[in-house]
Design a protein that fits this description.
Blueprint lengths: L5 E10 L3 E4 H5 L6 H8 L3 E4 L6 H16 L8 E5 L10 H9 L5 E5 L5 H14 L5 E9 L9 H4 L4 E11 L6 E9 L7 E2 L11 H5 L6 E2 L1 H22 L9 E4 L4 H11 L10 H4 L6 H11 L8 E8 L3 E8 L1
Parallel strand pairs: 4-5, 4-6, 11-12
Antiparallel strand pairs: 1-7, 2-3, 6-7, 8-13, 9-10, 12-13
The structure holds coenzyme A.
Coenzyme A binds next to helix 2, helix 6 and helix 8.
Length: about 325
């Protein structure tokens, strides 16, 4: 028997809805200011999906771009994993809608819900499918339409969220191939599940007049609590990634953190000793797009020349669940 194949990212893509929601627009909707939002979060604008535009609609163009770069057809896929917490419907999975739109039948297709940590969770599942020989090519997508679940009467949370999608193709590859996934680590803390929730519309609080009246169909966030937990966990996960790969912080060419708040990113960078010029930031333009921030950042870093062949890239996420994940790639 030959050596197990490794998994490598062979294509990237992203997609955003056209409409921009600026801080000035939010000033007209809630009691806030551009100055407060910029200094407290680093966000200047975010994108807003059109009425009727669902998570799978954003995932389709992002996926086509990733498939084109990987040079494979949708029918070459062995699986589609779509990380989202804002699916088109409770069922069927948005991955199935995506598969139908791409013409990728009959590969496996499923959604993965690990909130903002979902993309790296999905990457890790794709790696497992590839290394175990169950798939040669897996489409790993994250797509969110968080603005559809944002309470525009809650000024603390409504400034944070935006819509967007990022996609990657993960393929079987030889050791040392470009984009190789060297390591992934996943974790969760269900004892702290109350810090970020979207309570309504599920089986706990089914949709109805009561859930509507109590605004349970909107994201509930204990922001200050999440802030502190996030910095601590991001530092822990990056330390884990570096130790597991036998590298140092100085070897990390680019840290790609989940884009939840610029101050969280800066505090993590300082504690890790990875200067901000080696940390990817695009939160100013897109806000927090949930699971999609990391693949969108990867796509941008790849296409704007920020990533070179051989660079060591560390991905790190933190989100509802609570959940977290990390990965090391050799570009
Ligand atoms: C939400 C978040 C930006 C709030 O920033 P913060 O510095 O923690 O702010 P606080 O909640 O402590 O509020 C500080 C003050 O600003 C006020 N404030 C809150 N939102 C405001 C807004 N949009 N505009 C103006 N003032 C605002 C608060 O009412 C509070 O006023 P007070 O001091 O008079 O009570 C920040 O906590 C955060 O980014 N948290 C993590 C984000 C997150 O959980 N993301 C989702 C998961 S990935």
């Amino acid at each position: 028997m030959g050596e197990c194949p490794r998994a490598a990212i062979t294509g990237c893509g992203m997609y955003f809805p056209e409409r921009v929601l600026s801080n000035a627009d939010l000033e007209k909707m809630v009691e806030t200011s551009d100055e407060w939002i910029t200094t407290r979060t680093g966000i200047r604008e975010r994108r807003l999906a059109a009425p009727g535009q669902a998570a799978s609609d954003l995932a389709v163009p992002a996926s086509r771009q990733a498939l084109a770069e990987a040079g494979i057809a949708p029918t070459d896929l062995g699986a589609i994993i779509l990380a989202t917490m804002t699916p088109d419907m409770l069922f069927p999975s948005s991955a199935c809608f995506l598969q139908g739109a791409l013409g990728a039948t009959p590969c496996a297709a499923f959604d993965l819900l690990a909130a903002c940590s979902g993309y790296v969770y999905a990457l890790s599942m794709a790696q497992a499918l590839i290394v175990s020989g169950q798939a040669r090519h897996v489409l790993v997508v994250a797509s969110e339409v968080l603005t559809k679940f944002t309470d525009y009467e809650d000024r603390t949370s409504c400034i944070l969220f935006g819509d967007g999608a990022g996609a990657t193709v993960v393929s079987a590859a030889a050791p040392g191939a470009p984009g190789e996934v060297l390591y992934t680590t996943l974790g969760a803390d269900g004892a702290n599940s109350g810090s970020m929730t979207l309570p309504g519309g599920g089986s706990r609080y089914p949709a109805g007049p009561e859930s509507l009246e109590q605004r349970l169909h909107y994201i509930k966030l204990r922001g200050r609590e999440v802030f502190q937990l996030a910095v601590r966990k991001i530092v822990e996960v990056v330390n884990d990634c570096v130790a597991a790969c036998g590298i140092t912080m100085a070897d990390v060419s680019l840290l790609v953190p989940h884009q939840m708040n610029l101050r969280i990113i800066q505090a993590s960078s300082e504690r890790l000793g990875i200067p901000m010029d080696r940390v990817f930031v695009n939160i100013d333009r897109y806000g927090n797009t949930g699971a999609a921030t990391v693949p969108i950042a990867l796509h941008e870093a790849h296409t704007n020349g920020r990533l070179k062949r051989g660079d060591l890239v560390v991905l790190v996420t933190f989100g509802a669940g609570l959940s977290w994940s990390g990965a090391v790639l050799r570009w």
